[in-house]
Amino acid sequence: MNPKLKRLIGGLLFILFLAFYVVVVIAISHGVLPGKSHGYQLLFMAIAGTIWVIPGAWIIKWLAK
User: Fold this and answer.
1) What is the pLDDT of residues 14-58, one digit of tens each?
2) Beta-carbon-side half-sphere exposure of residue 48 (alpha carbons within 13 Å)
């Protein structure tokens, strides 16, 4: 595969993944977090803010091949 095309596809895939992930996390947080303590909200956001790295790393690893 042409490296430029691969970078374009990988970049678009990464952006689409992040957009989808943000929408899902927001939907979950609006359903789960209202009325919860600030500690619980902080824990949820810390975990949700870290989990995206795993699939993001797979996309970046694919791009590096």
Assistant:
1) 899 999 999 999 998 888 888 888 888 889 889 999 998 988 888
2) 19
* Alpha carbon distance 23, 18 (integer Å): 9
What is the pTM (predicted TM-score) of this model? 0.77
Task: Please check whether residue 3 is in contact with residue 26, taking contact to mean a CB–CB distance below 8 angstroms.
Answer: no
What's the Cα-to-Cα distance from 49 to each of 2, 4, 21, rounded to whole Å? 33, 29, 10
- Structural contact between residues 44 and 29, judged by C-beta atoms closer than 8 angstroms: yes
